[in-house]
Amino acid sequence: MALRRSETLVEIEGCNGDLVTISGPGQGREGFELLEGGLQDVYDIPFSTIYTQHAFEEGATYNGMRIERRTPLIKILAHATSSRTWMAVDERWAELWSPLADTKLWVTTPDSRRHLLIRQLEHMRVDLSVDPHGEQEAEIETPGVSGDPWWWEPSVFDKWTSEVDTTGLDSNGQPKIARGTVTVSNPTPYPIWLKWRLQAGPTPGTKWTIADFSWGNKIHRRAVEDADRVIHMPEMLGNEHVDIETDENAKREQTRSTLDTQFYMRMDGKTFLYPLRPRLDPVEIPVEVTGAPAGVGVRVECPRPWPRPWGQRR
Fold first, then answer.
1. Strand partners of residue 78
2. CATH architecture, range 154-306
3. Spatial contact of 42 and 70, defined as CB atoms under 8 Å apart
4. pLDDT digits (tens, 9 = 90+) for 44-102
5. CATH 2.40.30.200 domain span(s) along the chain
6. Cα-Cα-Cα-Cα dihedral sign, residues 124, 127, 132, 137
7. Where in the chain do CATH 2.60.120 domains reside?
8. CATH 2.102.10.10: does it fit domain 9-149?
9. How many Å is the maximal CA-CA distance in the chain?
């Protein structure tokens, strides 16, 4: 039995770029209808907690939390339309999916629009208890896997551009410095890791200072000492841009140069340590630049990963 129509719009954006509706306004128009119970393992973020216990310990000690992958299962009724046979609709559904590329499951409510990245985990299963060519419809199960289990909204960006030439020295013989701020926030219930893009001038010498505040995080036992921690970035090459992904568990190096240089070697072992804490209202954090002409800038990106397809917004 097809799921009753609702105001929640559920769409599939295929790995081929095709977009179809499976529930909500427009359901069935393209030959796809979400079945009752047809979305599984797509709600709360899957996680497990880690506890250890020594030989004579009473109880156990909490040692962390692991975010797991999702294994969504999508069940639809595929049926003929006024312009497509059942077989054409079935083939269109198959082309939306691949084990090698991401498909997006979009969920839109009056308050949000978020997507989950899914790849095909196993072969599709089609109910052949009746002849789909005779009935011009069939139920299809698509097993999926989400290595990235978060529901994503568009990132929020802010930027600051220096209006001052900071090359050379000031009247006291000290390096010129331009100071500004960017606004960051985190309305989600989980920590998020900032992403930065630093810009250099046409000649070598640009140096940026970027905030890496602890936000009260005790993970390194330096919540107070690192309350106003900053990273003094190394000197950049001419016309170099540097991308920073502060997540210490990222699947790539934290710093990457657009000139394909090994920028991490210039960091002298310095790394970013702290994410933005959950439920952080918009707040300004400082940035500084020296050794650069007017017009260079910095951009900060606040990702928006959510544990659920809707709600939980502060």
1. 32, 138
2. Sandwich (2.60)
3. yes
4. 999 999 999 999 999 999 998 999 999 999 999 999 999 999 999 999 999 999 999 99
5. 9-149
6. negative
7. 154-306
8. no
9. 88
